[in-house]
Fold this protein.
Amino acid sequence: MCVIVVCTSKVPPLHALEAASRWNPHGAGYAYPHGRGVAYYRGTGREAVERVLGFASEPRFPCLIHFRLATVGGTSPHLAHPFPVPLTSDRYGVAEAVVATNGHHGGWVDELVRRAVECRKTPPQGEEWSDSKALAWVLSTVLRRDRTRWLAKNARRWGRVAYLTAEGVRTYGGGWNVFRGYMTSSHLLPLWALPCPDCGESGWRCVCVLKEVGRACTE
């Protein structure tokens, strides 16, 4: 269900990011402060992963990296994170801020409609949507100075959220994994992809399931 990596002074090893991209194959992106705004890139496919790994090899801090697993919406590059705020369909550029999520908001359509009525604005028509894109649009309708206050009150409905501006990065929601120099919204590798206790092979090569579910290694 996606992974956000928020880096303040260090990035995870490149092989760990590469692995995370395999388990979250529907989008990759990064962002970092640039002047008075935030430079960002997002896309899909191997090209996007290579762009992210290239950035991670020479990072600019603070920054965020995101790998997407599509749980709501399709696999269009326009649904990759991070989303620019104000929301546009651009896949790269400089924005006031960016937002990325790890989670699922089941009531995102109602949230979108309610905010549209409140602010008397119409969301973009004829486009693919996801709950994360809905958050980016809602944030776009909030005054810039009020966005962090709005997120502090509402972001948990989307799970774990990272919001990056020229002033720095803020995270919302519980359950972040904190390491020296960076933090992740979930494991870079799913637990079942860790080495098998029976044969030592990694999860994508070993056909067994951990003993806790009652099966032993068949290799």
Notes: Residues 191-219 form one domain.
